Predict the structure.
Amino acid sequence: MSDLVAKLFEQELRRRGVECGFDDEQQRYRVHHCGRELLVSLDNLARDYDRERDEGCVASFVDNLLSAYVEQQSWEEMRSSIMFTLEPSDYAEPLPLRTPISERVDKVLAVVRVERISFITPTLVNTWQVSLAELVATASRNQAAALAAAKLEHTDIDGMRLGFLGTELPIKAALILAPNLREVVSSVLGWPLCAVIPDRDFLYLWGSRDRGLLDRVGRTVVKEFTTAPYPITTEVFEINDDGIKPIGAYSTESV
């Protein structure tokens, strides 16, 4: 087995929050996903990589591996776990069912549980026999429920209010996509908002009137982005009734 392919495989699993370990006796990986253990050989992946020399084949292999379990579950079993996640747009192979919200960030349909995230593929949609419109509507409802269940907290800095959310789900950043965001946070933080999402499980929110917070959070954003296992972006977003748009970004070199 190729050491390089093994390294790339492990990195891809870590990036998705999936645990794995190598079984010396079986000479295979034990991958823990959605409450089940998968025994995985990398022989075919290694051959594909040797032939193509494309790291994108590793992401594709993991997509197929992790969706295999989800494909065994019915739409009714998965419906409550369908959500949007925010992911960087620079994957070696673009993620399926994605919609850009900036040049750097995509909104992606996924099965989201406390311990796992599995990206939804067109094949899976066909297996479930649901329309894309129904999938999107379901994700929006679940996103709204997740935000309503999250704990909104804040700290005051020189008269400016910085907000953050507490939730067990590993997609805290993606809660800015919830359709009830204004309803949940405006009484505490105001509206419109600014937001930073340096990694999948990090979110700061504040009223866009409090521009002084832009200078206060920069170092934290860059630190999170450069050290977190699932970085997204150093961009700052403005959120208003028209949607979400990037208004700038922190430099990883100057902050």
Notes: The mean pLDDT is 89. Helices lie at 3-15, 43-52, 56-71, 75-78, 122-128, 132-149, 181-189, 213-227. Residues 147-249 form one domain.
